[in-house]
């Protein structure tokens, strides 16, 4: 039996993809509202983040890797949605109440039975996971059916529009900081520090006691990075040898570097920023399949470097990332729009015109 808030409309607005490749667009269409089945809830989306991964999926940028939106998504992307629970499917009555705030993530559902799920700390590698906006309809719609077990509860003190970006960008930056294995008082380098992921990484790194070297271009990015807590800013537009500058600051090189800027240049030079035993964390996902994250074997061996990757985080990681915002420690810098503006925001993102994290108003 489904418990629900009256009235739930039979139809809703959604941004639905049409076309393919870099000319694909979305249009606001009227589609049916599905009710939740057993183990599911229905969330009325108030705000959704617009992530770089949404752009990549909408425009088939990862087709070279065999990653394209599946028919099961019904052309509805989005994976940073937050809203209010308006219907509760059978079996979820003890976990959710009508009116609770809920967050929908890239990982919409895991199997709960495989080795990765049962480990309790590694369900992001579940091979049978369902992904929002990829293999199931995402959050670019007014009402979204979600798995009641894997949807995140939003704590008091975190606004919906702030919680949205934390569902993906925030938790990705937070987990990257953990995977960098940089201790309090040690140096971490953040290329692309003024971007959507980078500006969050600055804040999480500072909250974890790291000393931050931010790399980006221009006075506006310099001002933002220092405001968010970066100890040092290196302007790549005016600095000839970034690795030498980092060694001048740190003596031996940084303990860790998190690459959020998905460019060939950054991935090829980032290992040279590290000291012996340092760790490079690959986060930015280039559309070009020839881009590699690594270094020549001689450099890797002589400096005993670590190269690791990360993508989003576990259910527990999301809870921890949200807690930083609830405690007024980490806040995404937001640029706000409406669901109807999605096409123009895709173009803005392609041109690098979006500062911080983009969020779209879905329902009032």
Automatic annotation (TrEMBL):
GO cellular component: cytoplasm
InterPro entries: ADH-like_C, ADH-like_N, ER, GroES-like_sf, NAD(P)-bd_dom_sf
Signal peptide interval: none
Cofactor requirements of the protein: Zn(2+)
EC number: 1.1.1.1
Keyword Chaperone assigned: no
Protein name: alcohol dehydrogenase
Organism listed in the record: Aspergillus uvarum CBS 121591
Keywords from the UniProt entry: Metal-binding, NAD, Oxidoreductase, Zinc
Enzyme class per UniProt: oxidoreductase
The Enoyl reductase (ER) domain, residue ranges: 21-360
Protein family (similarity comment): Belongs to the zinc-containing alcohol dehydrogenase family.
Keyword match Protein biosynthesis: no
Region entry Disordered, spans: 1-32
MF GO annotations: alcohol dehydrogenase (NAD+) activity; metal ion binding
Superkingdom of origin: Eukaryota
Gene3D superfamilies, per the entry: Medium-chain alcohol dehydrogenases, catalytic domain, NAD(P)-binding Rossmann-like Domain
Biased composition (Polar residues): 20-29
Pfam families: ADH_N, ADH_zinc_N
